[in-house]
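go over my protein:
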Amino acid sequence: MPRTDAQGFVTGRSGAPLDRPLTLAVLGAGARGEAYAHLAAAHPDRARVVAVAEPRERVRTAFADRHHVAPESRYATWRELAARPRLADVAVVCLPDADHLPAATALADLGYQLLLEKPMATTEAGCEQVADAARRSGTALAVAFVLRHTPYTIALKKLITDGAVGDIVSVQHLEPVGHYHFAHSFVRGYWRRESESSFLLMTKSCHDIDWLGHVVGRSVTRVSSFGSLTHFRPDQAPPRAADRCVDCPLEPDCAYSAVRLYREGLRVGGPKEYFTRVVTGGELTEDAVAQALTEGPYGRCVYHADNDVVDHQVVNLEYEGGVTASFTLTAFTPMEDRRTKVFGTRGQLTGDGRHIEVYDFRSERTVRIDTAAAGSVADDHAGGDTGLFDDFVDALRSGETERITTGLDATLASHRVVFAAERARRTGTVVEL
């Protein structure tokens, strides 16, 4: 069966292997778009970037030059790119959340295969529209639920499938967002307001809900949830707190000081450097940080911002057969990896994103496994970016599109659970699926 359309671009059909690299159009040249472009550049015999859409001229030019994108294939917006005849096999959609729906549906209708950042869309109806467009166009779609693709998850899932703890009875899972990460992204930053992005469980932890379903291997039947915006609000502000950290007499002793976070980002590397790059547009200088703190949204007091998303939430899930899971999402933690306990009929499994401990009830012994030996954890998301990208590219190039593990049906089911959990939180009810 032919794998390409009349223009020579890959279709979503299964069939013969492709004998050339996949071509990619990257929509959004921020951190996520650059991550996938970097993975493509590492293996140009498998995939290469041929077009980009990015509104920030300096970022667009630097990205396009770095990845050798022709001048005529550089666009200021995704709509400009979508107005052209199809330019590539795959559209890598790394746009703001609100643009996922219109971009994904338009690009699917043009014939592009889609690698789509989570969430699919910011409403349940929007997710259904994306799914309908993919089905209508025969599009191979993968949503970037990178947690499924880490060496840690692969090892953990195999242990469970092989019966290391018997049958799963319940799961306890924690997403420790980290205090300064939460202040940056969900109090001062892009995801602070539902009207501009979506609710917190969707924007931060829809992949945790997906991951739990992947680990348990069953469908959710009932869900309840509780949570609120408890701390980051005006009535919690200490006396004399100013509207901006640079003007605040309490700043040196404040746990959420923007001054300390972004200035340390100039020196210490890691997540703090990443956050500093976000607020300065990539310019790691004292002057750029000072301007951002004085004029931009990231210099605001966490108690006097315009945020409205919750700062902590719990979700209780019941799966087919009576298996249960509890999920906690909270701002009030150090920056650390997720923590999980799986309680089975023959043992207990404990994981921290890298290490797995399996306690056996019969022998009363614990086996400890370091999953770093199973693959690289050097890239973002502990190897998940590489695993997701490689699996998607290999599925399309091999002609075996059914191998896409974060495909349409599984992804849509996970999103439905997230929307159900948020309905449960808002209504104070148990929602049945």
Observations:
- The longest strand covers residues 168-176.
- The chain is about 35% helix and 20% strand.
